[in-house]
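Page 37, top half.
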Amino acid sequence: MSLTLPIDSLRTAFLTHLSQHHLVVTAETGSGKSTRLPVWAAEHGRVLVVEPRRVACRSLAEFVAAERHEAVGDSVGYAIRFENYFSEQTQVVFVTPGVALRWMTENRLADFKTVIVDEFHERRWDTDLLLAMLKTLDNHRLVVTSATLDSERLTRYLGGRCLSAEGRQFHVDVRHLASDSRNMPEARHIESRVKEVLLEHYQSHRDILVFLPGRKEISQCSAMLGQALRDQIEMGLVDVIALHSSVSDQERLRALTPSDKQRIILATNVAETSLTIPGVTLIIDTGLERRTHQRNGRTVLGVHAISRASAEQRKGRAGRVADGLCLRLYGKAAPLELITPPELQREELVEPMLAAACSGYRLDALPFVDSVPDKSLAAASEKLQQMMAIDPQGEVTEHGRILYPLPIDTLFAHLITAMPDKASREAMVDLAASLSVYQKIWTPPGNEETCEKLAKWEPCHCDAMALIKMVRITDHDSLPEWLDVDKATLAEAQMLSTQMREALQLPDLDVATTVRREPWLKAVMQAAPELVYVRREKRRQALGNGYAEVSIGRDSRFADDAEAAIIFDQFALAGKKGLKQNLVLATCMAPVPLGYICELDMAQTVLGDSIATDEGIRVEHRRVYAGRVISSSWQSPEGESAARALLEMVWDGLLLEGLAERVRADIHQWNLYLALGRYQPEACTRPATVVDAKQWLTEQIETLGVESEDDLALFSADEFVFEGIPQWEREDFDSEFPYQVKLNDLTMAVEYHIGRKLVVAVYQSGGRKADPKRWELPRWQGWKVQYRKASRTIDVR
């Protein structure tokens, strides 16, 4: 290690304190902490280094091994998904948090003496969880590092010591290019602004690093720069390189290896930490990143302004080989957050809760640096109990232990294990693998000719079946040439499927069992009914499941005449500024017949209208799912439906003619009698409580035990008597406050608004065109009187 780095000044103090205390180490980006500290800690025993990103994990292991003139896997190695380069003799092992958590469940990291959690400031849920469990376990020496960190608070949390390394190799000047000092980072036209700034400055710098929020913006910016710098690129003077979590090894090496060409590296915040990108002297910082947050109970992905801590990290990528410049496309006084909020506060907690349970801990009992929302904890517990992954006490079940090791989303793991047969399980494994890689495997065609070819190749218009079919084509040369497939991403999905097939003892991909689509999809519907959506009848682009609504994604092949679907994958975006709702897009849909919903008894039965026919009474039985009628049929009433049907027909005047109208009048007058304060306890036989007419009639029919039309025929309307206003008082009360007023060719119902001393006579029937006169109506002394017909209301004078 011939090169002297700022972190080297801490070596003696680090080794002295490490044997006695947990350590928090802060140092600026580029100080060497990610490469030096693991090697020093190895003097005390085997070291596990937890790096938040796969790219950094691999690159750091390669760098440290090269400095020691060794092959990766000797004394320094790494482990990420699909790649393991270490042995029992390897002293320093760099791993991603997912690998560390998996090893934690297996043996609580007993093979390591020191655990270094690097770049903790990113506040991923997996590193927060790992640190909380290791602190509770208290069997390891813990080292937490970051370039920008609330070090005092973290030191108190760990009960340890804090070490800081000062100094930077070269100065980095910072300029803000916003028109106003308080301007926040802005996503609109970001690619054009980057191009404009870069073209102005690129000739006076070596390599350039541009921070963009995501792959979409990187792709658009790359296309713009490719046009603007076409001559320099063709002459071999400039190289435009993408750097994000899912780039190929070749692309990664282009970004991390010095070159004779001037390199313009377009990166997400994967380039903020740990990675050494030599030669960069210019940073263009858009001040934006894509990150998740909770909104209306969902985890949604959106573009956010970065924190001040991230801004400092980005600035630190320059100044490694010479003085540098950082151009920020936002104001100097922009009100950025101090640090990025922890993921545990802004994401769903299903995976963290299951990971904790598999390691023997309850998530709600662990001591975290920051509190975890109670609402998110309750929602995660409910989901995991529905999956039978944990019990009501929060302990992991055998089913939960089966789910956790599968390297995919917990819901997909649950679906795989819930499948009743081998063919369905294989289908679910291959689909889960295709949806668990970082990029899309394919892009559906945009022209009519290719769409027709695709419809012949996969005739069900099923996104899920198309993905399964692609994953099972292991010879990529056999893929249809018209199919726009990312072969590197497809290969990763196939590796993931192979890994799960081996773990579950399923056949290899090249001898996969033929998918039996109907039983597979029915099994999915039973295991996860919340994935079943039906179209809205009027808004055809929208589907609902009774709890949430989604819109059909642009790349989905969901057919225009399809009415229901299993939605395996969704993409949630925050709604437009000023709106509360989220935009949720269905990106992987499997159409299913509406009949499946009824067949699996997922729809609710709702009784509709009743009719009298020559064969007797018939009641409409509606099957309703997510507010939509799936099917309906007319049936002879039985039991509860019979009593309900009879009541409706009595209420509508079709049976026991005149009864319903009399009951409505009697009870209306009773309620009015009470409201006017006329109740006399000594004269009335019933308590002074308001009565609902339909409910009273229902109770009478139930009391009489009526279950059929024949039963009802044994009674007459006169036998249903409501005893309300005393009989001797009723005639005078009706005269003073009539329920209905009848004039020549005009019948009116009467409404009484007691608080306003207002009477409204409402037109019911009759051919009279003239409005009623005051002298024609009851006296209603002291009351204002109005007449209403349709939407017209007048005062009657």
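Page 37, bottom half:
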Amino acid sequence: MNYNLFEESPLKNVISFDQLIESLEKTAVSDNAYLSVQAKALLQDINKIPELKTGIEDLNLITKNENLLSNLLSNLFPNALSDNEIKAVTIPFHNIIFNFTNRFQRILDDAGGTFDLTIRDFDKDQFFVMSCILVLNAYYKKDFIISKPLFYDIPDKNGITKHYRILYNADFIKISPTEKAIELSPEDIDLLMDNYDDVNVWKEKFPLESWEMKGFGIVTLFDATIESAISELKTNLLRANSEHNEKDRKFESIFRSIFKVPDLRVGLTFYNEEENMFINPPHATTGTNSFILYEKKELPCENAFLDCEINTILKTNKTYAISNVEKFAKTAKNEKFAKHLLKQNIKSCILAPVIKNDKLLGILELVSSNPRSLNSINAINLDLLLPYVVDTLDNYYNDLQNQIEAVIQREYTAIHSSVFWKFKKEAQKFYHTYNPNKDYIFKEIVFKDVYPLYGQIDVKSSSLHRNQTVKDDLKSQLKTLLKIFDKLKENTNLSILEQRKFEMHSYFEDLDLELKTDTEQQIQNYIQNEIHPIIVKSKVDEATEKTIKKYFADIDPKTGSYYKSRKKFDDAMAIINKKMASILDKSQVEAQKIFPHYFERFKSDGVEHNLYIGASISPQEPFDKIYLSNLRLWQLQTLCEMELEHHRCKSILPYELEVTSLILVFSSPISIRFRMDEKRFDVDGTYNARYEVVKKRIDKAHIKGTNERITDQEKITIVYSQRNEEKEYLKYIKFLQFKNILEPTIEQFDVEELQGVSGLKAIRIKVLNTISENPDDQPFQLE
């Protein structure tokens, strides 16, 4: 056994039985003849070993005189209680322990010869400070009470860890200063009181071995396995950030201590009330798996127990114990579920519903590979543990719900970080003033005097391309069907086939005309209702059957139609949108460093973006129009990058598509308001609405006096209304021409009058297909 746990101590320990010997000497001269004779006889042996009184330095002396010490301590260790009490002689906080009671010795024997008694969670700093507190209480007559319990964790012969509470009796100990001791003033003691966690302060006031602790103490242990395990369970369940493998082992160790089952394993099955499903919890989140579901991720509740009689667990909400799974399997109704358990080497188990407020949260599973280890009697132990499991699962579900809502907010209804502060402020106001008896009216979120920037990169003629691919797929489908009908005619004399062929030819010719809104749906309904039934019911030869199988294999299962040309178009559109959005999002990170601003983007047949910048967006930072100019240059250069990226990826697109780019310049500050019903920002006020009108109509506008669109492929069109805006953007264009990003030619023209809007002008400039790789050609910011 290791006696010296820690090297540094303020105490020099001297084991002595002088107080006990002095008491024995008084008994020897007492009037009680019987006790006097016993005491005198014992003193004769004790006097032969003066160290027992003056102080023992060699611990071997204790080992050699075990019987003598046992007799000396007999009044403190009654023989009648030796099999019941867990008791021994010790020096507090040390591993110097001897004169064990029978019960204490059996506990140590079961733990194994190599087992070392170590106080749980007790380090060298705690040891030093606690030793100092002994001095303060004994010598300076202070009353510093530390109620933190101390424990020994000792395994039994089955490997189950049991927990014992430590109590010390120091009645036979005297503490006195040595020549190294420092006399403490009231101020010193006050300093120590305020610095429990600073061991260096304590070491300064208590030099090493500056005090002598002479005598002996008595340690008494109480089996506190259940109470300690419950406390550990609470701590373990709250330790969310610990390693899950470690947490899982600790979790099972706690249950094993309480149930005294060495191979006990713990499982959890979650319950999803909305879908009436049992779910296997993610091991990375909980550290446990479900034995009920085993390798399945989820199952409807009615299938989880394989029609076993314990389905009643869902109706009665009562714990169900199977003490012998092999015996349980002999009942026909339970055979499937029993085999399911045996496959996992489960011979006995307890299944306990976890319920809060009459709502099922899941099922706690305790399993063992030994029959009868778990049963309906020891299942009662769960009454102590379930409340903590209930709270933990409830917290888990709440956290999960919060995470789901956060994902929904991030992916679907995100509040941009630049304006989040204002939403947070309003939410805090709601919590501080909330009254359940009064409806709270949320204040509208408005940002005044902000400057808008709008831009888009749009797929040119996307509607025409989309309609054409729909026509191509329908024609291809009708061609295949006409070929199949020619084969059918060879094997049958049905006159209806000719009529159906005539109708399909008519639809085929209609596809050469402009595609109407309902044309695709009409043809699909016709094929589904009139053509497919004939094909399915017809008797055909082997070659035709192969053709028919290939035809149905080529039909998209989701749409029920041919999806080849349209798929190429959709895939090309998705590639363009993804690449464009990626460039914009990446560039936005840098743009936010110019000045915090609100940003949003949308994917449709291309990518649109809105920016709003102004003092009200970030009131803690001084705003200057130089930041607006910086953002305008950033926007123009970013659209150049997007145009160039599209040019680079055109060769890999499954369907060739061109893009056009547009910037709308608006120099007057506007107000934006968060629309609660639409969960998005929109311009506020009648005057500001003019900006939205222009934004929605401008991309379809023509050059004034022509039928030519203002946008063109591989070109960026900048629409503005004021002379100073023109001058500003011509400077940016000149700079980007110098950087070899834009071509030399600049087009300038008037935009046709839009409904309610006139006087718009535009600049159009082509992006170079290759951009200089000069390291100096980096994104520019105005100083």
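Margin note: The CA atoms of residues 272 and 278 lie 6 Å apart.
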